Amino acid sequence: MRIIRSRTELATLVAQWRNAGETIGAVPTMGSLHNGHLALVNALDGQATRRIVSIFVNPIQFNNATDFELYPRGLEADAALLDGTGKVDVLYAPDAAEMYPQGFATRIMVSGLDGMLCGADRPGHFDGVATVVTKLLLQTGADIAAFGEKDYQQLCLIRRLVQDLDLPVRIQPVPTVREADGLALSSRNRRLTPQQRQQAPYLPAALKTCIADLQSGKPVNTCLNTCHENLKNHGFNVHYLDLRTGDTLLEATKPEPGTRLFVAASLGDIRLIDNMAVA
């Protein structure tokens, strides 16, 4: 596996691959890798002859400077994990100056999808996501790129920007990978204290209970209010808990095919998100 830090060096290699008729798969990440990220790499099996995993903690998608500084980092361990798969050709690890050189002045905004759920909770976050993902898709020359369903709003936003900007890349969704106790894998989980880690699995458990209530025919508001109170009673600060359509993410009034339950909740200063299909 080759580690590349400059976009010029990456462009040279990508051009060589293109001339040789290779197909390129990309997995954009912010590092602190876990089995969820490896599932993204594995999702490209048989779909790409070359694979690039990028690691870049993107400063412009953080609206909290402390959160950015505390985001887990460990490039050496990440590189070893990727190299061990035997599937990754390049680890692309640019720094901020490489991604956003002096004078950089462009932002990409995906209207509508950026202002709800996590977008409402974290103003400007999805402009930063859309901007960096567009740059990474262009820099890697990806034919296909894998993104996890845990960040479902992000997945929808990226699908929209690819469609709207006519980017020649196919987006491959990958189901959420969970711990044995149901907690969705996330780099942020490493910041949980032992006590918080014991509390955290109640988040997916509460979603499952809420979904069972919805499927039994109970009113949506009743189900959501009960779930919200249960999470609060278990120590969570709930930022949002919504039933939404699975494509446009508009609010849903009843469980129908494609609807999903979305939640963001914090334990202390650790913000956790999750979502599950309802019907």
Automatic annotation (TrEMBL):
InterPro entries noted in UniProt: Pantoate_ligase, Pantoate_ligase_C, Rossmann-like_a/b/a_fold
Associated pathway: Cofactor biosynthesis; (R)-pantothenate biosynthesis; (R)-pantothenate from (R)-pantoate and beta-alanine: step 1/1
Positions bound to beta-alanine: 61
A GO MF term: ligase activity
Keyword line: ATP-binding, Cytoplasm, Ligase, Nucleotide-binding, Pantothenate biosynthesis
Reaction equation(s) it catalyzes: (R)-pantoate + beta-alanine + ATP = (R)-pantothenate + AMP + diphosphate + H(+)
Binding annotation for (R)-pantoate: 61, 154
Binding-site list for ATP: 30-37, 148-151, 177, 185-188
Keyword rRNA-binding in record: no
Active site: 37 (proton donor)
EC number(s) on file: 6.3.2.1
Enzyme superclass (EC): ligase
Subcellular location: Cytoplasm
Keyword Ligase set for record: yes
Domain of life: Bacteria
Additional free-text comment from the UniProt record: The reaction proceeds by a bi uni uni bi ping pong mechanism.
Subunit and partners: Homodimer.
HAMAP family linked: PanC
Similarity comment text for this entry: Belongs to the pantothenate synthetase family.
Role, per record: Catalyzes the condensation of pantoate with beta-alanine in an ATP-dependent reaction via a pantoyl-adenylate intermediate.
Protein name: Pantothenate synthetase
